[in-house]
Amino acid sequence: MTDISSLSMPALRGPVPLSHLFLHDFVRDGHTAVDATCGNGHDTLLLARLVGADGSVFGFDIQQQALIETGRRVAEAKLSNRVTLLLAGHENLAVHVTGPVQVVLFNLGYCPGGDRSIMTRPETTAIALEQALHLLAPGGIVLVTVYPGHNGGDEEGLAVENWAAGLDSRTCYSWRMGQTNVKPGAPYLLLVQKIL
Ligand SMILES: C[S@@+](CC[C@H](N)C(=O)[O-])C[C@H]1O[C@@H](n2cnc3c(N)ncnc32)[C@H](O)[C@@H]1O
């Protein structure tokens, strides 16, 4: 079998690489972007690259360790001056960020390799999503990677889907994207684009 990474093609294994394709398309030089769940900092680093020297990224996490890891990653890439890391829950997004922002990215659940009891929760995620939509520039997107397979993930996935499905189609386009040749409960991606 050909290794597609040797062909410089993105390997679309699950929703995270799919979310990155959208980031490449939607985030441009000078934009403001938010990583609502920094975790190990991979997504924050990509956003920091995409916003360019005149852009900025706000990264949220409730775990100090996640921010340390994210800070180390962006410092290594010499991009710290574009990134503001906040030890705060994303349900306080609007307290720390004034719009307009181009992208708000959520990668729900727990931090891989970290404490699995610390995870995103439906109540706070719902508050954060509403604030994210409010802060978006027209044309901007909210991306959410949902993990129904873990403890509490089902309930959170349902809350996020209900929120996205209930949005007025005159003001937002709302999408659900999941890989089909995977087991039930596999992670998937939700995208909401604000049009007005
Ligand atoms: C799946 S990880 C994120 C992965 C990350 N984007 C990356 O690139 O490695 C989810 C993160 O959400 C964080 N989290 C949980 N509840 C949160 C909240 N209310 N606000 C912000 N972050 C939260 C967890 O601490 C965890 O680090």
Task: Give a short summary of the structure.
With 196 residues, the protein is α/β, with parallel strands linked by helices. The protein has one domain (11-194): Rossmann fold (3-Layer(aba) Sandwich), CATH 3.40.50.150. The chain has helices at residues 15-26, 42-51, 64-76, 93-96, 122-135, 153-165, and strands at residues 32-35, 56-61, 83-87, 101-107, 136-146, 172-177, 188-194.
Key phrases:
196 residues; alpha/beta; Rossmann fold; 23% strand; globular; binds S-adenosylmethionine
Protein described:
The protein is an alpha/beta fold and 196 residues long. It has a single domain (11-194), classed as Vaccinia Virus protein VP39 (Rossmann fold). Helices cover 34% and strands 23% of the residues. It is built from six helices and seven strands. The chain has a seven-stranded mixed β-sheet, with helices on both faces. The termini are far apart. The mean pLDDT is 95. The structure holds S-adenosylmethionine.
In the CATH scheme, the class would be Alpha Beta
CATH homology-level superfamily: Vaccinia Virus protein VP39
Sheet with the most strands, sense and barrel status: 7 strands, mixed
Our Rg estimate from Cα atoms comes to: 16 Å
How many domains would you count in the coordinates?
Answer: 1
- Outline type: globular
User: Strand-and-helix sequence, N→C?
Assistant: HEHEHEHEHEHEE
Query: Averaging pLDDT over every residue, what do you get?
Result: 95
User: Approximately how much beta-strand content do the residues carry?
Assistant: 15-25%
What is the strand tally? 7
The CA-CA distance between the termini, in Å, is 46 Å
Give the strand order, joined by hyphens, for the main sheet: 3-2-1-4-5-7-6
